[in-house]
Structures are given as C-alpha cells and as structure tokens.
Amino acid sequence: MNVFITRVIPEAGLQLLKDAGLQVKQWTEKRKLTVDELIEECKWADALLSAGQQLGREFLEASAHLKVIALNSVGYDNVDIETATRLKIPVGNTPGVLSGATADTAFLLMMAAARNAFYMHKTIIDGEWDFFEPTANLGKELTGGTLGVFGMGKIGVEMARRCAGAFGMKIVYHNRNRNLEAEQELGATFVSFEELLRQSDVISVHTALTPETEGKFDAAVFKQMKSSAIFVNTARGKIHNEEDLISALQNKVIWGAGLDVTNPEPMKSDNPLLTMPNVAVLPHIGSATETTRDAMAKLAAGNIIAGLKGEKLPSPVNPEIYTDSQHN
Ligand SMILES: NC(=O)C1=CN([C@@H]2O[C@H](COP(=O)(O)OP(=O)(O)OC[C@H]3O[C@@H](n4cnc5c(N)ncnc54)[C@H](O)[C@@H]3O)[C@@H](O)[C@H]2O)C=CC1
Ligand SMILES: O=C(O)C(=O)CO
Q1: Can you tell me whether residue 104 is helix, strand or coil?
Q2: CB 70 within 8 A of CB 90
Q3: Residue 1 burial (CB < 10 Å; 0-12/13-18/19+)?
Q4: Same domain, yes or no, for 322 and 276?
C-alpha cells in the first residue's frame, strides 16, 4: 500500500512505514502543495501523512478513497474534520509527545520578552553595545508573579509546571472544565476569563484554535490585562488579533509579548512586532527538537499503519467514525 507524505519527515517515522512494507513518497519541494497537486498525488495513495497542509472539503471529497490521514501535529484546525468524519476517513494527530518541547518554547518566549532578549541580541549585531548603563535595558522579574494559563490541557500544564517550579509563580487558569490534577499538583486556581486577565502578570495561551477561541485576544481583552503584563501565544496565531496586539503594545496597554505563532504565517519581515524591544517572535518552532519531532513522526506513522490495517488509530481525532464493536 502507498503513503504520500506532504513534507520530509524524520527517518524514525519513515523507517516504521518502510518496515511495515509500505511504499512511501515524500514531497520535497520547499513549498506547500496546491489543492490540485495534493489531490493528484493522493490518487496513488492509500494513506496521507500531512504536515501543515490545509485539508479542506474539496480535497477530502476528491480523496475519499484514503483509508487514513495522519497529521504530523496535535493541532487539527487546518482539517475539515466534519467532512472527513462524514466520509468515514479516520484522522490521527500527535498529542502528548510534543507537550514538553512546546511548553519550553512558551517559557523561552516569556523570558525573552521579559528581558528584551531578542532585541538586545540585535543591538550587539548592530554595534550598539557600548557601555554598562544602570538605567537602560531594564526588563521584568517573574519570580513570585502570577502565570495565567488559558487552556490548561497537556501543554498548559507543562508550562505551569515550568513557571511554578522555576520561578515559584502562582498559577491561575481558565479552561473549558476544571483540571483537578493541575490544581492538586501545582496549586493552580480555576478562575473566570475576566479574572485571568485581571490577575495575571503573564498570560500564556494553550487552547486549540476553534470558532470559540478565534480572535479571543482582541483590543477589549488586552485592555483588561495589567499594563505590566506579558502575552505569550504558542497555540495558534488566529487566537489573537494581531493589529490589536500591535496597538496594545505601541500604546502600552500591555507590556510585552512572546509569539511562536502569527497570523498570517510566515510573518512578513517588516512587521512592527519584530522591532519592539519587549517582543520576542519565533517562526512556529514550538515542537522543533530532534527528540520531539522523532516522536511525532513515529506516532503519525503508527496512526497510518493502524489505519491501513483497519484498526482504531493510536491517537484518533474523530473516533466517532468507529461505530462497530470490533473497534471498541
Ligand atoms: N507552536 C507549536 O508548535 C505548537 C502548537 N500547539 C497548539 O497548542 C494547542 C494545545 O495543545 P494541547 O495542550 O496538546 O491540547 P489539549 O487539548 O491537551 O489542551 C487544550 C486545552 O484547551 C481547553 N480549551 C479549548 N477551548 C477552550 C475555550 N474556548 N476556553 C477555555 N479552554 C478551552 C481544553 O479544555 C483543553 O484543556 C494545539 O491545539 C495546537 O494548536 C501544539 C503543539 C505545538
Ligand atoms: O502540533 C502542532 O499543532 C504544531 O503546531 C506543530 O507541532
């Protein structure tokens, strides 16, 4: 059977597919496929392993023969899951294995924003490091401050662990449901969204992108945050309104920001956020460590292999397609 892969993936995942006797074709061009190209490539395939490709209704309906789609990500906001489910195509993702690495990135961005780190780095490159200035380049200390986690799921918990452990930060969170384990382990307190904005010195976003969270952090929300607060987003760029964020930073409505995700991606190189001292931006590298990317590729390969055997995926996004008892 044949597997089409939309990007080059780590050898660890590729080997699993080959060991299972599957024919594999990887897209090696440094650009995404168009919908038509993807439809064409998938005519040959029984399974698709997709990294960062938009999988909309047109593609899915033209590729209804696929026995499984495995995403090389935990986020599945770029896939029309409703259509995949209607067509009975199982979709798998990669939860858990990337939580630590992504939380590391959130922590890094929080620190970099708090200490103007990326901007300071650039001043050295620009030859502006001249003398020790006691009143210049001052950042914020986070020890003893309050971290507000929006979305206390797997990555949110890892971020809270780092902040509670490293800086003794108090943890407040807002989530769909209470996370009793996080409350017990970290002394985290569940608060309303408004209270999260009011209390937090740092707000770190860790929800999925959904119709509910899209555009959630806008001008009105930034206004409710502390003027000394740092906004961190490693989830999805569409969860904040970028124009409103720029304006909130320029007008000192909030103090700083750390972003691994932007809207659009890639961010244009003349974006004003890139020249603000208290802002740190990374090009969506949240899960980008060798260990984590290997684990993601292995999990994605596991989803493909199970799907091609007609078995329930190790990590299914739409388990509701399995209605018969054989998969229970
Ligand atoms: N920057 C990067 O490279 C990466 C980004 N991500 C993003 O991080 C997101 C979170 O990943 P996980 O922690 O694994 O997911 P998760 O499902 O474990 O956690 C998400 C949490 O958000 C909560 N939530 C969802 N909608 C909400 C709402 N409207 N209000 C309040 N809480 C809400 C859920 O109840 C859940 O507890 C992914 O969906 C993905 O978009 C994930 C990995 C890497
Ligand atoms: O897994 C995801 O959702 C990412 O954004 C990349 O790891």
Answers
A1: helix
A2: no
A3: middle
A4: no
Give the tens place of pLDDT for each residue, 185-232. Answer: 999 999 999 999 999 999 999 999 999 999 999 999 999 999 999 999
Q: Out of 40, 141, 265, 290, which one is annotated catalytic? A: 265
- Number of domain units in the chain: 2
Measured from the Cα of 286, ligand 1's closest atom is 3
Using 50, 70 and 90 to split pLDDT, how confident is the model at 326?
low
Of 161, 240, 284, 293, the catalytic one is 284
Q: Is 141 marked active-site?
A: no
Reported ipTM exceeds the 0.95 cut: yes
> DSSP letters along 199-227, please?
H-SEEEE-PPP-TTTTT-B-HHHHHHS-T
- pLDDT, mean over the chain: 97
Claim to verify: residue 267 and residue 321 sit in the same structural domain? no
Contact 282 CB / ligand 2 (< 6 Å)? no
* Ligand 1 contacts CB of residue 98 (under 6 A): yes
- Its pTM stands at 0.97
The reply to whether 236 belongs to the active site is: yes
E-only strand ranges, 169-303: 170-174, 189-190, 202-205, 230-233, 256-259, 279-281
Rounded CA-CA distance 75/53 in Å is: 12
323 has pLDDT over 80: no
Q: Which atom of ligand 1 is nearest to the CA of 206?
A: 10
Q: Give, using CA atoms, the residue closest to atom 6 of ligand 2.
A: 73
Is 7 labeled as catalytic in the residue annotation? no
CATH of the domain at 37: 3.40.50.720
Range of the domain at 183: 99-281
